[in-house]
From TrEMBL:
It comes from the Bacteria. Residues 125-235 form the DNA polymerase Y-family little finger domain. Keywords: DNA damage, DNA-directed DNA polymerase, Mutator protein, Nucleotidyltransferase, Transferase. One of its GO terms (molecular function) is damaged DNA binding. GO terms for cellular component: cytosol. SUPFAM superfamilies: DNA/RNA polymerases. This is DNA polymerase IV. One of its GO terms (biological process) is DNA repair. InterPro entries: DNA/RNA_pol_sf, DNA_pol_Y-fam_little_finger, DNA_polymerase-Y. Pfam families: IMS_C.
Length: 290
C-alpha cells in the first residue's frame, strides 16, 4: 500500500540549520532558527563614531530610566558625556556599577579570549570577583585576595568540597592601561583549609602582582573542586589540626546562618580597606538594608 509523503523544499542555509538542530536533539519544526547572511562588527572607534552621540541613553543595554535620570541631573546625556565625565563622580553616584557604565561608554569589552578559555563550568569550580570602589595599593590588594580566599574556603566547607589549584586575576587601575596579572598555583594537597589556601593565595599574589601599580579588580578561582572524600594530606600536614580547623569552619557557618554573616569576623576583616564586612551586607553587589 502506497503512503503519501509531503516534501518541503528549503534553502541550503536553513537545511544545515535544521541538521544542526537534529544533531543537538532539537525539533527543527519547534525550534526558533536564525540564519544570518551578514555579521556586524563594532570596534571601539566605530562605536564612538556611530553611538557616542546617540540619545536617549535608555536605548543602551543596562541603562534604565532611573540611571538615565541620575546622569541627566549631572548634565550627562550621551555615552560621550559618560566617557569624558569625572570617574570619581561616577563612582560616588553608582558605586562599583560605575565600572560597567564607564566600560560601556568607551565601547570596551574587558573579557578577553584568554578569560573565556580559562573559564571553568560551575559544577567543578567556584570563584569570587570584586571591582573595588577605589584603587588599592599592593598591601590592600593582598588583603582583599586573602579575604576572598577565606570566604571561598567557607563555601567549600559548606558544600563538602576540597580543591588544589588556585587561580588569581588582578586588574590594575584603568588609568594605567596596564595588562592584568594572572596566574595559577597548584597545592600539593586537596583541601578546604583556609590556613593553607590563604597561604598559597598570598604566595601567588606576591609572585604575579606589580607592587607599584594600583589595583582595581581582583578575581580568585578554585578551578577544580571535588568531593571532600578525596581530601589529601602530605607529610607536613597534621590531620588532627586540619580536622580541628574544619570543625571551626563548620561552627562559623552555623553561627553566620543563625545570626547573620557579620556575626563572626576575623581580625583581617576589620583592617583598613577590608571589604568582607560591607560585602556581607550586600545582595548581588547592592546594599541589602541590613
Amino acid at each position: 500500500m502506497s503512503q503519501d509523503r509531503t516534501y518541503i523544499c528549503i534553502d541550503l542555509k536553513s537545511f544545515y540549520a535544521s541538521v544542526e538542530c537534529r544533531e543537538r536533539g532539537l525539533d527543527p519544526l519547534m525550534t526558533n532558527l536564525v540564519v544570518a547572511d551578514h555579521i556586524g562588527i563594532l570596534e571601539e572607534e566605530s562605536y564612538k563614531r556611530t553611538l557616542w552621540s546617540h540619545r536617549p541613553l535608555t536605548d543602551f543595554w543596562r541603562v534604565g530610566s532611573g540611571i538615565a535620570r541620575r546622569l541627566e541631573s549631572a548634565g550627562i546625556y550621551t555615552m560621550e558625556d559618560i566617557a569624558k565625565a569625572d570617574e570619581d563622580m561616577l563612582y560616588r553616584m553608582f558605586g562599583i556599577d560605575a565600572e560597567l557604565l564607564i566600560d560601556h561608554a568607551w565601547g570596551r569589552e574587558t573579557t578577553t579570549i584568554a578569560d573565556i578559555k580559562a573559564y571553568r563550568p560551575k559544577e567543578n569550580s567556584i570563584s569570587s570577583s570584586q571591582v573595588l570602589g577605589c584603587d588599592y595599593d599592593f598591601e590592600g590588594g593582598r588583603l582583599i585576595a586573602k579575604e576572598m580566599a577565606d570566604l571561598l574556603c567557607l563555601k567549600l566547607v559548606e558544600k563538602g568540597l576540597v580543591t588544589d589549584p588556585i587561580s588569581l586575576y588582578v586588574g590594575y587601575s584603568r588609568r594605567l592601561q596596564k595588562k592584568s596579572a594572572h596566574g595559577t598555583i597548584t597545592m600539593p594537597v586537596t583541601t578546604s583549609s583556609a590556613k593553607k589556601i590563604m597561604g598559597y593565595t598570598q604566595e601567588l599574589f606576591e609572585q604575579i602582582v606589580d607592587r607599584n601599580a594600583p589595583i582595581h579588580r581582583v578575581t580568585l578561582a578554585f578551578n577544580r573542586v571535588v568531593d571532600e572524600m578525596y581530601q589529601q594530606y602530605d607529610l607536613f600536614t597534621d590531620p588532627a589540626e586540619i580536622e580541628r580547623e574544619h570543625k571551626i569552619q563548620k561552627t562559623m557557618l552555623e553561627i553566620k546562618e543563625k545570626f547573620g554573616k557579620n556575626a563572626i569576623l576575623k581580625g583581617m576583616n576589620l583592617e583598613k580597606g577590608a571589604t568582607t564586612k560591607e560585602r556581607n551586607r550586600q545582595i548581588g553587589g547592592h546594599k541589602s538594608g541590613e
